[in-house]
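Hello Y.,

Per our agreement to keep a running log of every chain we model this quarter, I'm adding this entry. I've kept the format consistent with earlier entries: sequence first, then predicted structure.
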Amino acid sequence: MTPATAVGSHPPADLSMNETPYPPLPGIRRIVADGAAALQRYPDRTASTLVSALSARLGVGPEAIVVGPGSAGLCQHLVQSLGPRPEVVHAALSFEGYPLIVGNAGARAVPVPMDGYDHDLPVMADAVTERTRCVLLCSPNNPTGAALRRDRVEAFLDRIPADVPVIVDEAYREFVTDPQAADGMELYRAYDNVCVLRTFSKAYGLAALRIGYAVVPPRLTRAAALTGAVFFPNALAQAAAVASLAPDVTAELTRRCTDLVASRTRLIGALRALGVTVAPSEANFVWLPLGQRAASFAERARAAGILVMALPGAGVRITVGSDEANDRLLGFVRSALAEGL
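Predicted structure for the entry above:
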């Protein structure tokens, strides 16, 4: 049974990809539409306008910025460029793309078990050796939603050799509200081996255009940039990203993130009121540690026209969607609990 047939006229509610529930802003849509008139032209291979805008926004020199295909693509570029040491340390229950990224870069993943919903930073520090190419930290962590605390990350970084880069993946940074959460840019300024990944795919709603940026120590910039494809990101992505940094768009982005955080709070509260265990979240998704029930939960949700991301044997990640999608999810959970899920 497909999701569409399971729910009659309702299209599936896709809560599996951590996309924003908000459509692109009209101004951004116009920029992309107008750009179609120049599709015969190659994009700026240096993304100079975007790099300049990011440099001004972040307060770092343009030589520290690498633009690329979202945070995941840039992670691939960085890990590949940092060779030849053979190992990459990361949390065991983190972004599902990390093992693939590490393998594609010709390295071996060293997964470290979690401390509850969070990275076990002391054990991760113990795992760093002379064979370590780099360390990957995900904050907020995908899929568990935990944001790394500033004091714990600083204690971790104090133990890491200066020649071992630490990549802080902040794809969901805009949704963080915890004042004790680490800020990657503050860490970058304080430690000479920190690299920061951010994206326009999530809060900014440009997932289809695949564009993000890395802030890295300048000594690493050239190698990272050379691992990327020529003429990428494309011109439409670059123009949309530049426009997304404008003050009026930033104000709307802030409003949308505030609204989404409120929806996240309501969704977590409603699920917990039903007796479901939900991890605290600083991202635009929630984590249900269902263990061996994860796969069956996701399959039943799919039959009900709701798509979620299951990590079999661990849990289910559910994107915070529109009010209508969240209500459909809650209705499904009520029915599933009544049937003994």
